[in-house]
Design a protein that fits this description.
The protein is of the alpha/beta class and about 400 residues long. α6 links the parallel β3 and β4. The protein binds pyridoxal-5'-phosphate.
Length: about 400
């Protein structure tokens, strides 16, 4: 069996596209783990919302199809089933990752007596670190990284003493793409008497999640990466059934029981489900785009999508590695998320050279170029071309044509 990209594209059991997602034309789009492209269904639903807004005005909240007022709840049930491995009442589609993280830290980080420590890791996304510090102060413990790229399971376990009340980690690390053992580390936190919360931004929509089966306590994620919810789209959160019913620390009227929200009572009549953790009015356009994208996901299913993602990242990893470049994403399937991270001391300039050569990566300082194939629109041929372009830019030092400094966003 040949491993020529064209053959792989022909033979793959889940070939990409065409037209399931709409990445920018004329480029190889490998930045769907920063901002995913839209789907035709998502765009159609956004257009419908705009039309309904013009036609119905405020009536869209009750009379649009589906009514905007409960669309977030319907979408939460879809995410729970399709993506999170959770029950419908355990998921809310609301806010954004950082907002939801603040909500759930304020609710579930409850230091008491000598059990006060909040364990996270030094490679966490900056926004998470800002939030974690705001809640835990000096009680925040950051597990170190041995190689500056990855977090060792044993090191997390070693930090889980009897003074720890919460473990908060990312399911897939945003720089290196390392996937952590969510089930194993959640179990370790529980064995130490602590809760386990997860940031799943780089896992949702690319790695099948089994939040119930793994006994996760809570989780947060964004919907604008692999899932194609659109720029700044509404985020998501999961709260395990056993934690529902308590007061959210940051209550808002959108967390009300939907049947009673417009009674406008002074008392917060909270929803019985994870919807209670919503704060304010949801952004309907992002919800529309996401709902459309979930139609595409529903056709394929997460297990088939993950299987193809692993094939694509293995192929890309091998190509980049064979060109003598430093891949820092773990090779093991159990430790690999959805993107491939390549270390280069001039990552910013390499990224700009790639963009000018028609490959859209993203760059994370100090030295990482991230390449994120999406199983539903990236082909092997594109990955081969991207790897060859990257190799040529580095071998020929083409990045030297670009001034130092970070340059454009992404
Ligand atoms: C791992 C991770 N956590 C948190 C965030 C912050 O997300 P938001 O801007 O939706 O709050 C991001 C954004 O890219 C992220 O990648």
């Amino acid at each position: 069996m040949t491993s020529e990209p064209a053959d792989l594209d022909r033979r793959d059991p889940l070939p990409a596209g065409p037209g399931r997602f709409l990445p920018p034309a004329g480029a190889i789009y490998l930045d769907g783990n920063s901002l995913g492209p839209p789907t035709p269904q998502g765009l159609a639903r956004c257009r419908q919302v705009l039309d309904d807004w013009a036609r119905l005005g405020v009536g869209g909240w009750t009379d649009a199809d589906p009514p905007w007022f409960t669309w977030a709840e319907r979408l939460a049930a879809r995410e729970a089933d399709l993506l999170a491995g959770a029950r419908p009442h355990e998921v809310a589609v609301t806010g954004g990752t950082t907002i939801n993280l603040h909500q759930l830290l304020a609710t579930f980080y409850r230091p008491s007596g000598r059990r006060r420590k909040l364990v996270a890791d030094v490679l966490a996304f900056p926004s998470d670190l800002y939030a974690l510090r705001a809640h835990a102060g000096d009680d925040l413990v950051l597990v170190p990284s041995r190689d500056g790229r990855t977090i060792a399971t044993e090191d997390v376990k070693a930090a889980l003493g009897d003074d720890v009340t919460l473990l908060l980690l990312s399911g897939v690390l945003y720089r290196s793409g390392q996937m952590l053992d969510i089930a194993g580390l959640t179990a370790a936190a529980h064995a130490a008497g602590a809760l386990a919360g997860w940031d799943l931004c780089h896992a949702i929509g690319i790695v099948p999640l089994r939040l119930d089966a793994w006994s996760v306590d809570f989780a947060v994620w964004c919907n604008y990466k692999y899932l194609g919810g659109g720029p700044g789209a509404v985020g998501g959160l999961f709260v395990a059934e056993r934690h529902l019913g308590g007061r959210p620390a940051l209550p808002g009227w959108w967390g009300s029981d939907k049947e009673r929200q417009f009674e406008m009572t002074d008392d917060f009549l909270q929803a019985a489900d994870a919807g209670a953790f919503q704060i304010g009015t949801p952004p309907i356009l992002g919800i529309a785009a996401l709902d459309g994208a979930l139609d595409v996901y529903a056709e394929v299913g997460m297990d088939a999508l993950r299987a193809r993602s692993l094939r694509l990242t293995a192929f890309l990893r091998e190509r980049v590695d064979a060109a003598g470049l430093a891949v820092v994403t773990p090779a093991a399937e159990t430790a690999r998320g959805g993107h491939i991270a390549v270390a280069h001391p001039e990552a910013g300039r390499v990224g700009r050279a790639l963009r000018d050569a028609g490959v859209i990566p993203d760059v994370r300082p100090p030295d990482i170029v991230r390449l994120a194939p999406h199983p539903l629109y990236t082909t092997y041929a594109e990955l081969a071309a991207a790897a060859d372009t990257l190799a040529a830019i580095v071998a020929e030092r083409r990045w030297e044509r670009y001034p130092a400094g970070r340059g454009a966003v992404t």
